[in-house]
Amino acid sequence: MYYFFSIIQNADAKTWQVYLNPMPKQWESHFGNIYYEATAYWEKRVPGTHFTEINQREKADFVVQWASQFYGTRLGYYISSANNDLGRPYIAITLGYMDDESVKWQDVKFNLVDAEYAKLITIHELGHAIGFDHSDDPNDIMYPTIYNYDDWLQKKSQTKNLFSQLENNLQKSPQNIITQFNAKSIPLKEEVNSKVSEAKGYVYSRQDLLYSKNYQNPEAKKELDKAWVKLGEAKDYLAKSEWTQKEGEKYLSVSDHKEAYYKYLYSREMVNKVWDPILEINSAIHSADMLELEYNSQIEKQIADSATKQKDKTCLWIFCW
């Protein structure tokens, strides 16, 4: 149920362009932001890896879609070939399923998959999509028996009972952990709200700047393209931060300070990551401006030289000297 986490230093890192199919609205409250949590896992584990959402499916490295049926006995799978109805490699994660497939569609009642398990499956299949094979280590998220849902549920039940006992012991202890979370969640919320507001303003100011740029120099255009990619990364981090910020607000509204604290903690982590791509945007635009300035100077010089040659040629014919 719990998997070790180790940084993979030698893996190929890149920005993956993902076409994300929307999750059914009626299931969002149950599953939350499992896609963003799954991408955050790999961004941490493989330094330099990023995921950015795009609107054109045909340009995506792979597609993520949410399923409502099994594929054989599995709750998730990855198809590496683009020879399918989607036209791209894709991962599919089953969020709900039927006990009796003979029931008429209008009478179907779905069993929702455990949200934590759905997140683990999403992490696992994303791992395949970015190039990782199955692991031989049973403690690794890429170990293939993660597919055994019934075994996983049983282990979760056992672990949950253990944690329930620990929680009871903590409640009886002199230092009540709940009080600690009450004291920490509100200041963290205020910090996150401030950081998200600042980052959001800056991200969209960079977007407006990029829209205003129009270069003639091919090399400057390449720098502008780089800046757009980095803007996508910044917006992804911002979206993850805003999502978990709202989740934190939901938990605070029902006085669940512990869950709120962890949501805000993750939100702060994501919003802090916004600034690296922002700096790269600024650098790319500066380079593009310098390249364009040099390019324009060369064009102006060519025009001036051409005009001088034309004048000399005219003088030759009419004996200017």
UniProtKB/TrEMBL annotation:
Keyword Hydrolase: yes
InterPro entries reported for this sequence: MetalloPept_cat_dom_sf, Pept_M10_metallopeptidase
Entry annotated with the keyword Transmembrane: no
Domain of life: Archaea
GO biological process: proteolysis
Coiled-coil blocks: none
Domain Peptidase M10 metallopeptidase span(s) in chain numbering: 15-147
Protein name as catalogued: Putative TPR domain protein
